Amino acid sequence: MAKITFITPGKDSITLEATSGNAMELAVNNGIPGIGGDCGGVCSCATCHVYVPAEHASKLTAASDIEKDMLELDDNVNEFSRLCCQIEITPQVDGLVLEVVG
Ligand code: FES
């Protein structure tokens, strides 16, 4: 199980728990604003763009080339950007904070 905290575009902090799936699915299933998940998690829409605080980056595996290419198309990309459909829910991501770009 992992707890993930989403910081919404309105700066609300919402902590959710899950045992499987990915962070986009967790957000969409719980109505987190600003996460669209339009492509269903196949890394082709960037509607699941989040910022990962630097101190949490070590919880994640490196972004794939496909994820990096997709992020480059987003105007709000920066060095903290990730697509949360690519963040698998595992015990390793427990405590992760994701700031929704929206
Ligand atoms: S849901 Fe489409 S890229 Fe993540």
Automatic annotation (TrEMBL):
Coiled-coil ranges (or none): none
Cofactor (UniProt): [2Fe-2S] cluster
InterPro entries, per database record: 2Fe-2S_ferredoxin-like_sf, 2Fe-2S_ferredoxin-type, Adrenodoxin-like, Beta-grasp_dom_sf
Transmembrane segments: none
Location of the 2Fe-2S ferredoxin-type domain: 2-102
Pfam families in the record: Fer2
Domain of life according to the entry: Bacteria
Gene3D superfamilies referenced in this protein's UniProt entry, alphabetically: 3.10.20.30
Family the UniProt entry places it in: Belongs to the adrenodoxin/putidaredoxin family.
Protein's UniProt name: 2Fe-2S ferredoxin
Entry keyword annotation includes Iron-sulfur: yes
Record keywords: 2Fe-2S, Iron, Iron-sulfur, Metal-binding
